[in-house]
Structures are given as C-alpha cells and as structure tokens.
Specification:
Length: 109
C-alpha cells in the first residue's frame, strides 16, 4: 500500500482485488464500488379482492395496469383479480454490497 499503512476498513465489505483475473475487471487496489441489485422483474399476481381497495405502486414503469406518472393507482375490485403484468426489468449484472478492492497479500512489519 502506498502509504505503508493498512486502510480504514470500518463499515466496508472487502472484495479481493482482481489483479487482472477478469472476475472484477478494471478495479484498482482500494477503489470503492457501490452497491448493486441484480437485474430482475417483479410480477403482479392474482388475488381475491372482495370489495377491497387495491393500491398498485408505479415506481418501476410496468404495463398498462400502471399509470405513466409514477402515481399510485387506486380502485375497487370485486371478485378475483387476475393479471399477467410485470414491472420493467431493472438492476445490474450482479448483486453486491458497497465494497472496497483489497489485496489480501499483506506484508506485516
């Protein structure tokens, strides 16, 4: 390490430095990487609604059941509601916590 001192890792997840292996390309020692949620959908499933009010959030887009202004749709549904809708695909190519690239080969003085 350039400063000849171990970094302050309190509150950080340690991710072993790739060092050209190709698993986490482009990282350098002690670089910080933000959190990421892997790409996924959320399905809107069927349920029995017996005169209940149904709230459907629209914070991820989705299909025609949802509005286009990021509002919450509200309405009464009698009987069984069946849907084949799902939200838009969102997220990245992996799921990870915020982390710091760390070289596990440390020379203790």
């Amino acid at each position: 390490y350039p400063t000849l001192k171990l970094p302050d890792l309190r509150g950080e997840f340690i991710r072993g430095w790739d060092d050209g292996r190709g698993v986490d390309a482009g990282r350098v020692i002690l670089s910080i990487q933000g959190w990421l949620t892997g790409s996924h959908y959320h399905n809107i499933r069927s349920w029995d609604a017996w005169d209940n009010t149904v709230l459907v959030p629209n914070d991820r887009g989705g299909d025609s059941l949802l509005s286009t202004d990021n509002a919450v749709q509200e309405g009464a549904i009698n009987g069984k509601f069946t849907s084949q809708y799902r939200t838009e695909l969102s997220g990245g190519n992996e799921t990870r916590p915020r982390n710091i690239a760390f070289n596990y080969i440390v020379r203790a003085a």
